[in-house]
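Researcher: Please translate sequence to structure tokens.
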Amino acid sequence: MKISDILTENLVATGLPGNTKNEVIDAMIDLVATSPKVTDKEKVRKAIFEREEIMSTGVGNGFAIPHGKTEAVTDIVAAFAVTARPIDYQSLDEKPVRLVFLLVGKDNLVGPHIKLLSRISRLMNKEEFRKRLLDLKSPREILDAFRQEEATYFEA
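Model: Translation complete:
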């Protein structure tokens, strides 16, 4: 499964509002909840925040990947956003975050969920790609960037 298979324009945002980590996560949950794959937004919220309590999903280099598993989705669903401003996310490297990828998986789809987390992390480890995402202005441009980057790094 490719990132570009699960992201659509309506699940990508630029200039995402929020001044705190929790506000940004809430905005991301609101975004992903527009997907017909989400059957219960509050259960998704609970799963994401429970995972966040274990350890911050601010993985470093201005990137965070809040995620969780729940039966409140019919399939793996994701959203991506560039925040309007840098956010103190309690990241592992203590740097602020502007790139946020939210991933919600079904409890019984652990393998695909882990593979997508790994794929997202590998793409986002590339500094040039992160910088490019920060410069893009529209959801379509961001989706195109993910497609191009995946084509470069991964087999179909």
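Researcher: Any highlights?
Model: The helical segments are 3-6, 21-32, 41-54, 110-124, 127-135, 139-153.
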